[in-house]
Specification:
Layout lengths: L1 E10 L6 E9 L18 E6 L5 E6 L4 E7 L2 E8 L7 E6 L5 E6 L3 E8 L2 E9 L5 E6 L5 E6 L4 E6 L5 E7 L6 E6 L5 E6 L4 E7 L2 E5 L22
Antiparallel strand pairs: 1-2, 3-4, 4-5, 5-6, 7-8, 8-9, 9-10, 11-12, 12-13, 13-14, 15-16, 16-17, 17-18
Keywords: Repeat, WD repeat
GO biological process, one term: iron-sulfur cluster assembly
Protein name: Cytosolic iron-sulfur protein assembly protein CIAO1 homolog
Length: 235
Amino acid sequence: MFCCIVKYPQMSGNGKTVVALIQVRRIMSILAENVATLSGHEEQVWCVAWNPTGTLLASCGGDKTIRIWGQEGERWVCKSVLTDGHTRTIRSVAWSPCGNYLASASFDATCGIWSRKGGEFECLATLEGHENEVKTVAWSQSGNFLASCSRDKTVWIWEVTDDEEYECASVIYAHNQDVKHVTWHPTQDIVVSSSYDDTIKFLKEDADDWQTISARNPSFSANISGAPSVHTQIS
């Protein structure tokens, strides 16, 4: 199999001709082998997430449970089943950067915080405030913030205190439709949200509040992961 890669396209002065360097590369087919099938959930499985060290896998689903999987020899086994946190489908799970906490998002409009100590998990906190289904939770790389998004069109930023308390730092009304997903920048406390309103928002703390920022903001580098600089207003 071959593919053509177009690099460095340039428009001619008259705007009618494009000149580009074209590379032809051969792509080798790679067959993925199924090494394990994990069974146990009684309804749809919505999300899976590795812990930071890759030793545990968390899964969640329509059966309102979270399962923690680990490897024993050549086999993958269920280490724990977390059942007490939610009353409806669990849509998303995410590990904290330190690996000691697991956050969950549920259609019951709450987020759960699970603490891992000595191989055991307990529900440390239930975060309430969203008015509708919570779709995704995500930790910042620093571990100081947790973001959640919901069908209620909002993004909530939760701040983690030293005594394991979770306080709402901001409620952001940046979208006019369901907010489907949130993710954090890998090195900065910038959260990005995507929505059914066909937009992507960049959100950052500014003067003790969280605001929508644009790629033109001098405090925000649009050159993320080696991508070319963005010159389009994001709002």
